[in-house]
Design brief:
Helices cover 31% and strands 21% of the residues. It has 18 helices and 20 strands. The strands form 6 sheets. The chain has a 5-stranded mixed beta sheet, sandwiched between helices. Strands 16-15-17-12-18 form a 5-stranded mixed beta sheet. The chain has a 4-stranded antiparallel beta sheet with strand order 4-5-7-6.
């Protein structure tokens, strides 16, 4: 007896959807970005972090309870336990010596032990002015690495800062990366074996290793045979990169993927609609966190150099309406880059409510008057026309782009929209400050983190510093630089919080960055999926991938 075609299709869909229960040692996940590099020291894409957290471990990290913990080390050095101690340096300066002991049974995937020499080599690469390390400033502060033995070393740092033991250091395997680095440090960034030989076992010290990559499309992870920690439940994880959130949702519904990555999956408004239709099949976790959706302003653009123009841009955005209409109020409007959840949060003294009339007055005062078609131009006849770029395929950002274009048009600003694949947007456009006007994206921070790398004048990426640093607007202010330096040196949280308030006041005047909202990431978990703990900060849930499993 033959079955009707519609019934056959329904059965096929049901069988596809049921696949996760048939293969409990395999997992297929989806996310919306593909990394621009795999090297731990270069690039700052969240997509790389999500995968890297499955294949490697940092020296220290913030856990899901927002506590700083050791990952590769035996215990966390502190001033209280004596494993960190102030030291006097030349010129009467005070630094700090931080003693670490690596855990036993740490190995690279090829069986070579992880040693203090790997730490010293990583610092050597990070400090080199041509290596292109994103956190170059943090590496430059390390004066030297004193090796006591294979597992014990001391970092001597040029200052005692509030976050002295928060290293977050990702190690490079000296035995395979040193020959590449020494051959030509200036080209190391493009010749690293992480990109030239991505599937090499020798590159990974975490529970998984990258076994296969299809650029722009997928990453296959397999258990790392040299991992001695808790064994992961999954033998194999396939990460499908689907750079369109609507297509990602379709793949989740069809069963082509088991899970859409919470940090880089469905947009919040998609998840809210998805929950209304499929609440019986999934658990929904909405995790607010230290994720600041914002717009960087390129301060080298003459049209944007007058801060009255930047203030008008912010006054011209109805952020409450965006939060209410697009996200059902689940994403709080941001009046600064410091989230109310952050221990350093202070109520801002200056905010920018939606006020188109005030925005128009500021633009008039800045010399941009309304002309033909209702658009503004200055006395030179230069039209106030600005490009707004973001990541392609992210439905939330593309909707926000359109809303901003409409709202800014009402105050006489012409906005051209641009969307690029994330690996291009982050790997080239932002990293090399190639955006011409405005850039919409998010920063993920750590609890209490001082935003030096995004606002200090010496953190502006350029060819001269091998495009290190993340001050993409090109913001320069000597008073802010001095304040950031003082914030790092303030060990007393109360004093540091007062300085945060001062910094936020200054940034609220200058607006090198236009704050939009604090993001809430939706985690849509199959009922049988256990062990995923959203963190809400820069260390993603995948850093504890060995705890993920299907329920029996």
């Amino acid at each position: 007896m033959s079955l009707p075609r519609r019934l056959l299709a329904t059965l096929a869909l049901c069988l596809t959807t049921a696949l996760p229960s048939l293969a409990k040692d395999e997992l297929v996940v989806g996310m919306i970005q593909y990394p621009s590099t795999w090297n731990p020291l270069t690039g700052s894409m969240l997509a790389k972090s999500v995968i890297q957290n499955m294949t490697a471990r940092p020296l220290t990290a913030w856990d899901p309870d927002w506590k700083l913990v050791c990952m590769l080390c035996v215990d966390l050095p502190t001033l209280e336990n004596g494993k960190a101690r102030p030291v006097e340096l030349e010129g009467g300066k005070r630094g700090v010596a931080i003693a670490f002991t690596l855990k036993p049974d740490l190995f690279w995937g090829d069986g070579k032990p992880v040693t203090s020499r790997d730490v010293a080599f990583t610092v050597e690469v990070g400090k080199h002015p041509q290596s292109g390390a994103v956190a170059a400033e943090a590496f430059r502060r390390i004066l030297r690495v004193e090796i006591a033995d294979e597992r014990t070393f001391t970092l001597v740092v040029d200052r005692l800062s509030y976050d002295y033991n928060d290293t977050g250091l990702w190690l490079l395997p000296e035995h395979v990366e040193r020959p590449v680095f020494e051959a030509n440090p200036a080209e190391y960034r493009t010749r690293t074996r992480y990109d030239a030989d991505t599937t090499s076992l020798a590159l990974y010290n975490g529970p998984f290793r990258i076994a296969q990559t299809t650029p722009g499309a997928s990453i296959v992870l397999e258990r790392n045979p040299a991992w001695r920690g808790q064994q992961p439940a999954f033998r194999k994880i396939t990460v499908k990169v689907i750079e369109n959130t609507a297509a990602l949702e379709a793949n989740l519904l069809s069963g082509s993927i088991d899970y859409a990555m919470g940090e880089l999956g469905l947009s919040l408004e998609q998840a809210l609609a998805f929950e209304k239709r499929h609440a019986a099949k999934y658990d929904f976790v909405y995790k607010p966190g230290l994720i600041h959706e914002h717009i960087d302003v390129n301060l080298d653009n003459p049209l944007l150099q007058d801060r009255r123009v930047r203030q008008a841009l912010l006054l011209g955005i109805d952020r409450n309406a965006i939060s209410t209409r697009l996200f059902e109020g689940k994403q709080a409007v941001a009046h600064s880059g410091v989230n109310p959840l952050d221990p350093m949060y202070v109520e801002p003294t200056r905010t920018y409510p939606y006020d188109p009339a005030a925005a128009r007055a500021l633009l008039d005062a800045a010399g941009f008057v309304v002309g033909a078609g209702g658009m503004r131009a200055n006395a030179k006849g230069e039209r106030l026309s600005i490009e707004l770029g973001t990541t392609a395929g992210n439905r939330s950002r593309e909707q926000i782009q359109q809303v901003l274009q409409s709202q800014w048009r009402q105050i006489g600003i012409d906005v051209r929209l641009k969307a690029e694949p994330p690996r291009v947007f982050f790997g080239e456009t932002m990293n090399k400050r190639a955006f011409t006007g405005l850039a919409l994206y998010a920063w993920v921070s750590r609890p209490g983190g001082v935003p030096r790398t995004t606002y200090h004048g010496d953190q502006i990426p350029s060819a001269a510093n091998a495009f290190s640093g993340q001050n993409y607007p090109g913001y320069r202010d000597a008073a802010v630089d001095k304040l950031l330096d003082a914030m790092e040196a303030a060990l007393d949280p109360a004093k540091r919080r007062a300085m945060f308030a001062e910094l936020q006041g200054k940034l609220a005047e200058d607006l090198p960055v236009l704050p939009l909202f604090f993001r809430t990431d939706p985690f849509i978990l199959p009922k049988a999926r256990k062990g995923v703990r959203p963190t809400g900060h820069l260390n993603t849930s995948t850093l504890w991938i060995e705890q993920w499993r299907w329920a029996p």
